[in-house]
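Thread: Modeling a multi-component assembly for a lab meeting

Hi all, long-time lurker, first post. My supervisor asked me to bring a structural picture of a complex we are working on to next week's group meeting, and I have zero experience with this. I have the sequence lines for every component (602 residues in total). Could someone generate the structure of the whole assembly? Inputs are pasted exactly as I received them:
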Amino acid sequence: MRRACFKFSWIAAALLAPQLLIIFVFFYWPSAQALYWAFTLEQPWGGGNTWVGLENFRKVLSDPYYWSSVRVSVIYALATTVLAMSMALTLAVFVDRQLAGYRAYRVAIIWPYAVAAPAVGLAFQFVFNPGAGIFSYINAVAPGWWDLSRYPWQAVTAIVIAGAWKQVAYSFIFFLAALQSIPRSLTEAAAMDGARPLRRVLDLQLPLLTPTFFFLLVINITDSFTDSFGIVDTLTGGGPFRATDLMVYRIYADGFRGFDYSGAAAQSIILMLLVMALTFVQFRYVERRVHYT
Amino acid sequence: MIERTPVLNLATHAILVFGLVLILVPIWLAFVAATLTLQEVNSAPVEVWPGDQLLVNLREAWAQSAFGQKFVNTLIVATGVVLGKITLACITAFALVFFNFRGRMVIFWMIFITLMLPLEVRIVPTYAVAANALMPFQAILDATGLSWLITTLSGIEVALEWNLLNSYTGLILPLVATATGTFLYRQFFLTIPDELVEAARMDGAGPLRFLWDVLIPLSKTNIAALATIMFVYAWNQYLWPLLVITDRANYGMVVVQLSDLVPDQLTTGGGTPTWQLAMAATLVVMLPPILIVILMQRWFVRGLINTDK
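Re: Modeling a multi-component assembly
Sure thing. I ran the full set together rather than chain by chain. Output:
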């Protein structure tokens, strides 16, 4: 730790107080509250809580709709992550060659990061719209073949593509930064040894990207659990037949439309545990990353 | 570039252009849709070249959604989040790094853990807190018997209430309550050489003067990076404002407005979907953060990579 420090005084306490107060009220209290609700049954219009133990969890976990929601969330998480990361990696490797116009390419790939999730959802709803979007071509040939509001697999495909589209920029920024931090002398040494560009990518750059890769893998999966709400809400609204009812969307629907706070809280706790487990994995790899470089 | 590789260079450009097309197509189609008339936008197959109705559609979408007040609101909230976050992050990291006291690591971890659970995951109870931000303290007073003591001693009923629903504070505070920026600042402060602190103390500077006259001028790039990220983050908030704001006319944010524009059975009442207006509104809503990211690209990328979020 530091040698030259200021002594603890009321100043330090005053500087720390606002942040601690704010995270107590808006982070720790709600998290504890979720835990409390998950183990009790609350009457939505007041009247106190009764302790029910694991009953809420039992109810949630025995609901087939919950499991289909988990299934589609996992499909969404894996599919968006794979799509977005492979696209981001490909683009980053080629942008990193720094040919003419590389700055223009970089800006053009980065900006989608700034687009709000519901805007992405809405734009893609137009693109995938059976009557007016790209797929109107297909529907002109085979009428009624493409309709998001009728076929679950098409709705899932649509949210996956929209989600992946939104995630590409983030992964791209990290891949490109990692590629650019590879020392030039290393690349030059490989070239002197006769490694052509493709060989250098496979044997030099990709192995050095492993830590970034793992980091992004976890971040992308976590984000797909938490960030998907806006896309689902504007693109499919959870339908058709609850086919795109992702976990966060379901918590929102149960808690605020169904007024089932206990059920929503139990689902929140499960999601919290999931996100925490993923974050834990991430910290381990982030630590690895520090050791690598 | 190390060797001459004309074929590979051509392939590189081809692949990059192909990637760009994939990225740009959805937004291009949305843009084209915003320039068409109602009949054109709903006629299959889809139009790929813009029409001449852009301004007309923009004007109508703007009026339909009453965007004027909402842009002001969104700007207020985004500015509030940016300022609040930068201030809090800076002073908290300063206290953690430059003061020596017991329990420093405990507090550090208490703040660090908040990175783990995003707002979306704990949305239901956070909403309950926003309905009465003093509820935690009320509950503590009740549980410890203090409120009973106060009531019996003074005869005053203790009922703390601070409703944050439908207010700027309610929009801003929960978005500030994470540790994102604190770690950016902590990492930066840890790189400050001890000699600088010693020199400042030798010259008779107290902690606050050191913070204000030495650290803050040094952390200008940090501030720019954090400001960019937080602006985009706050502007694009959707779920939280959707819940907290029921009075959309006065406190609505632009992004939330998009949920009303989805042309489905509910909004069109079975009529022809007004895609051209929905897309015009989408363009308007997403433009400001895109401009910020493009203009502040250098700081934005740096901030993103350093905060790991």
